Amino acid sequence: MADDNTPAFPIPDAKINDSDIASEALNVRRRINWSSVLMVAAAADCFLLAVIIIKVQIISFGYANEVNVIILIGQISTVMALLVLGNSYSKNQFLDIKVQLWLIARSCLIVSMMIPIYFFVCHAFGISLTAHSEKMCVATVVAAISSVPILSFFRAAQIAAVQTLIRLGKLREKIVVVGVTQTAAHFDKIIRSNERCEIVGYFDDRRPSRLTNEVHDLLSNYKGDYDDLLCFVRNNKIDRIVVAIPWSAHERLNNLIRKLRTVPIRIDLCPHPTIWTFPQLSVSRFSGVPLINAANGRLDHGHLLIKRAEDLILGSIIFLLLVPLFVVVSIMVKLESRGPAFFVQGRHGFNNKIFKIYKFRSMYRHSDEKVMQATRNDIRVTRIGKYLRKYSIDELPQLINVIIGNMSLVGPRPHPIPHNEEYATRIEEYFARHNVKPGITGWAQVHGFRGEIDDESAKNVN
Fold it and tell me: Domain 173-293, CATH 3.40.50.720 — does that match?
């Protein structure tokens, strides 16, 4: 049998020599920092917005002297503020092209909607605008709308460039793991599939002979003990230190953290893999006590405020524009069959609160108390109702619900209460869809899930 000083299996030399440090230092100089990339992206957006706004104003007035600096700065600041609030320049969301395109479109369109509101307020209070001011307002709207495709194209190019840098290894996050444990092995397995980061070394204060065969694969990247760790992180560009020591080893963990606080690097504690089964986790402090948040079914106040402003502004504008259509459709519904023009029914809303939803009536009135789902070629649907349902015109009165505040423009569709209760017995966590306000349209409609709902589509949608 091997004595205590003999390793259970061969490991590489734990000591760090000068050539390793020199090689890593050269690699550091060639690497690009994520913060720099995001700052460049934000600066590029500001520059593009300035070019677009100035160009539109010059085209509108014919000469450069009429460029309004106040409007220029205000428009750029508003769009950039909305992008920042939407986390457009966060590392976690920057590479998501769908999220980026949505944030750009939303920010620019909100700015474009602010000008009609300005016109409306001026006319409401009897404030007359000069022809020059009106022309400037129109130019501002045109610039905001024109910015959507241009910024979207450049954002797609930026994302493609960043992805190329990641593949070349120029933008990978360098991670050091402390503790050659089962938790570290699970962490290593996940990180290997993520091309945005890499583990550059493992460190442990235990002798190699005490490390189990279960973590044998990690030892090919074993660098040494805690003293070697401090030397390594001071001489190399390390972005993050992940501590995978069991939390039950209090004294060992505390001593390690005290040592690591002497280096200017982010330090994270890796919990037991059991906690990883929760889809969303965050850490906060309540009365000084650290808590791990496993679920939070509500949006933060900032996002709620932005979403409500969008609903109120856009919903009101769309409703005012569609008032003539409302009148025409109401008359047609009344003329074809007896009954009211609007169909009103109770639905589950935010937090399962029941509200009254408004729709154009598309069916003949019936006395059956049982709520039956509409089907294809349903005999209850009127002639005009077929066209209303086909083009979703029957849903337009829900703009009233949006303005009132019990619905949103975008969100999960509200189903009849009996159907909701039935789906809740079949689909796990079904009622989690009511953690946000229901919407006129949502994910399901965008992906083609419209009309009659069967078991399979209900699971996909919810």
Answer: yes
